[in-house]
Amino acid sequence: MADHVDETTQTRYPWRATVRTIIAFVGGLALAAPLLYTAVTNQSPEAATGAGATALLVAGAITRLMANPFVNEWLTRLGLGAEPKQTN
Length: 88
Known about the structure:
Blueprint: H1 9-12, H2 14-42, H3 45-66, H4 69-77
């Protein structure tokens, strides 16, 4: 039996995965910024929970969107795709 190790793109290109995660995280925070500001200034636990949930939901949606083949192809042109550009 052959030893077959199937490496993921996250393992082969860790910096690409890191940058894509940062993009999703920053996008989630940016869209939740008004809720976060309200939570911080009013010291409201309910608003803070809502802001955290919103940021997580948006980051998850952005991550899912980046997994779409069309979006991944576009990100590849920018150098952020799951795989590097194919050179012919």
